[in-house]
Amino acid sequence: MNFKKLGLSLLAGVTLFASSSNLSALAQEENETVKIGANMETSGYSASYGQAMYEAIQLAVEEVNNEGGLLDGREVEIIHYDNKSDKTETASVATRLVEEGAVALIGPGATDLVLAQNPVAEQSEVPAVIPAATADDLTMDDDGNVLDWVFRLAFSYTYQANAAARFATDELGAQKAVVLVDQSNDYSVGQAEPFIKEWEALGNEVVLEESYTSGDTDFSAVLTTLMATEFDVIYLPAFYTEGGLITKQAREMGLTQPILSGHGFASDAYVELAGASNATDVYFTSNFYTGTEEEAGKAFVEAYEAKFGKTPDTFGALGYDGAKLLFQAIEDAGSTDRTAVRDAIENMETFTGGVTGEFYIDEEHNAVKPAPMLHLVDGEVAEIYEVDGSSNE
């Protein structure tokens, strides 16, 4: 027997089998959907934000699939589980999405939920795009190092707070402010502190700082204190829930001073709670305005209204851009490999495929772009200003 010839024949058979297996695996991958995991809160305290983002993500997926999908024809599949605005549930949902093969995660909406997901993203080495959360250190670990797998699109606490302080000083001529802060809410505290710092650095005075707690519905005691105080503006960093009620009660008590806030007010639910006539002389930073004249923005609004029968808000726009950013990164990577997608996000020079403006990702994994300040009168946007909240340090 010719053992050498037999050996070569066996090797050829093994090689042929391996090649066939690789081709089969490649063909299988090409036929598989590209799975995106949506960890969004569609119930609980921040459901208004999460629902808006999830709807816009569905729209983005529908559009990309109608255009032929990604990577030469692979359909995009969105896998969503409601994290119920609960931190423990958020971490569990993130783990489940990773185990079910999500190429990347998008969401959650609120900062405390994102912080619960971050360890899962880092340990699982899966890219996570965070559309709307705003904590300054959202993309950093406890030692101040940039997280490898987490990227954020919205403005930070300090950016929004600085912008509000400078706007009230320069545009409204204000010098005396009262600050109403929810001490139980990181979003509120996270903006109140840098606002006060910037406000006083501008030579202004905080004449009163009052506290309330998430879940409160009667703010008459706090607002009565304001009635006896001389001031120019109210700074109210809050979610739409308490923010809407405080605005309503303040206006009904006769407090007419301008109210400034961050993008927590950028929801139709805020105007519904406040009442349209009460939502007057209200200013807040936002990432998107539904009355935009930009072609991409107008097309997004029209498509969203056609699909869901309502107008999108800034959270919907951020969710839409988060999905579009992931689609671009997957195409740039030419693969669904998580590391390749992560690298593509980090190395993207300029993202132009969204509706919240062109931006790039900085070294701390935050999107860099200009911020609009919206002025509400009778619940409608009356004016738009461009503001700068970048650090002076």
UniProtKB/TrEMBL annotation:
Signal peptide residue numbers: 1-27
Ranges for domain Leucine-binding protein: 33-377
Entry keywords, A to Z: Signal
InterPro entries membership: BCAA_transport, Leu-bd, Peripla_BP_I
Keyword Signal among record annotations: yes
Keyword Cell membrane found: no
Family that this chain belongs to: Belongs to the leucine-binding protein family.
Name used for this protein in its record: ABC transporter substrate-binding protein
